[in-house]
User: What shape does this take?
Amino acid sequence: MMGPRPRLQKSDTVLIIPDITGPSMTQIDVSPATAWPATSGGTLKTDAGASSRIGPLVALGRTLSDLGFKASAALDGSGFDPAYFSDPDLPITYEAGSRLLNHCAELTGCAHFGLLLAEGAGAEIMGLPGLLLMSAGDLGTGLHELVRTMDLHDRGAVLTLAEDRDVAVFGYTIVASVAWPDPLNDIAMRIACNMMRGFFGDSWSPAEVLLPRQPPEDPTPWQQCFRAPVRFGAKRCEMRFPAHWLRFSLPAANPTLHRYLQQEAGRLKTLLGKGLVDEVHRMVRATVASPPCTAARVARLLGLHERTLNRRLQVDGTTFRRVRNEVLYSASRQMLGATTMNLAEVASALGYADASAFIHAFTRWSGQTPDQWRRAQQRAPS
Assistant: This one.
């Protein structure tokens, strides 16, 4: 049933919209300036790439308290005041966030700290992209909108949605450089599961959850959280569920509000000034490890026709193949330089059929074989 007709008010920084789960009004700060710092001249930076809204970290103090720790003492020396985590619209870099969460997990001895932190977080914690999802007519439409606009909430990761026969695959890929990705992946999958239960009832469970972390000593917290098989040590971070759920109507569907939020998302993307090449880079980084990483697939994720994508890239002086190669070269150097993965593992993580294909491509890009490049990096002074 359609909700109340929204009373739409707008400024450059604030949306005042109806609470789409009830009759009260909700005020949400969706200004890009709150998430991405402005330059002294007032032009919004477009290279905020490794940042996100605080979002679910608003529960940090409560989670620490529940585990018997005072937030002020736990955060001492971290560079953050506990009061900073009272506003979900404030920014935090992925590097600082991952470091902080790892510190909290070690301090409390709680390996599943990320799961606890996101216990009460649903779609609404993601700001405007989350509202777009909630107001959509059906789950599939809403999730595609979430994928398309997630950068308004989070510039350090990319979401993907795919259908593999009768299975829907909702993926989360960190594109920022972080030392401790495990709690971030846990948070992402907990929120994904929470929002599904918010739509379809607490008894809802995924078919499977994949996490790219080493198997914990005690997997019970993850199993109890998702109430589904959890595959640790996976190559990707994904939640899988029957694809028929994508056709289900959402309880807060509101076509008028949804159209307005789409317009606002477009306006904010314009204010951010991000170009198409940047968007394609992010989407390619998210899809290289889950083939096919093709222009057609990336175009669908961006809501474009493939010919339109190729034409606009050409106008920007590049091609999809060139962007894809740039992403693969950057990701391969990161893996070779920062991990002990062997060449077969690197090739597989980047979507190559075998190591020889990866070696040939890397040698063409760098003029060195991957082993030669890795040895040179190890000899280089730190």
